[in-house]
């Protein structure tokens, strides 16, 4: 029998690893619980170098700003760092976050603990939690991570709007496409 921590992260599941201390690229230590704001938390697995991340830079900035403007905390998670020099990685993450004008947390997931707990496999891959820290959406930012001009459905934006309106999120799970998160 599987332990509760090993069960799939399904819609309605509580925020996993909520008190795990994470290193933000600014040098500050945070937890997901501390990053959560009154209307919830958006956790997005990301990185500095994935071509899908590069193609989604503007969309990442827009959705993160939208979440923050609606009192939803934002944490971007870099899990592709296990075999690297932590100080060098944090410096590269800080440079990237500054270049991208991030004003939200961008944390290192050195042992891929968050990626494992969330069952995240791609960058970008998004998880939206409501006020009660229950999962209401998981998946892609939109329906075309490879081509911004071809987007027809903005899944994460719609999920945020449904959640803020007190509605059940219509499309609560989509397939995330992108670079694989590497477990070393």
From TrEMBL:
Thioredoxin domain: residues covered: 9-165
Keyword Membrane: no
GO molecular function terms listed in the Swiss-Prot or TrEMBL record: antioxidant activity; isomerase activity; oxidoreductase activity
Lineage top rank: taxon: Bacteria
Keywords: Isomerase
Gene3D superfamilies (alphabetical): Glutaredoxin
This protein's record includes keyword Lyase: no
Protein's name according to its UniProt entry: Thiol-disulfide isomerase
